[in-house]
Structure formats: structure tokens, C-alpha cells
Write a structure and sequence with these properties.
single chain, 103 residues, mainly alpha, 5 helices
Length: 103
Amino acid sequence: MFLTLALLRKGIPGKQWIGKYRRPRQITWQMNRNTLKHLEREAENEYWISRPYMTAEQEYCHAVERRARNWLNIKEAKFAKFPEHKNITDHLSHLNVTKTWSS
């Protein structure tokens, strides 16, 4: 019975582009070309990735000075925003109302 339904059925049930029994897309020459270009680009990327720019010895601790300099710059920028120190005399100077000018 299932074979008969499958052989005599016309069209695709439901939506034709999605689902288990969907209609297959036609492969065009543009799709073929784009796939080939994508594969060539991927092969070139793998080629360049497989060859390191620096050896392991060169790479070890190569950025220590730069990272230390950057950290100092960040620290100095943080301290630049810090307000300057104030003494207790600055905070309590408004209480000196009884002090005379002559002394």
C-alpha cells in the first residue's frame, strides 16, 4: 500500500522546500563556482595557518616589555583621575572664626 501511494502520488506533501520529503534544489553553475571559490579560499587559509610567523623560542616572552609598559600607562591613567590629597586643616579651616588677624 505504501509503495502504491509513493508511486502514484503527485507532488510533494506540505511545503515543497522544507521537511523530510522536500523537493531537492537544482545545482546551478553559480552554486558550483561559489563552492569551488570557498574551498580554494579555505585551502589557502589552511596553508598560511600551518606555517607559523615566529618559532616557539621567539614567541616565548616576546611581549613582556610591551605588556609591562601598557600596564604602567593604565595605572598612571587611573592615578591621574584620583583627587589630590587633603589635610585635616583644609577640612576644618571653616572653624577658625575666632582667630585674629594680628597674631
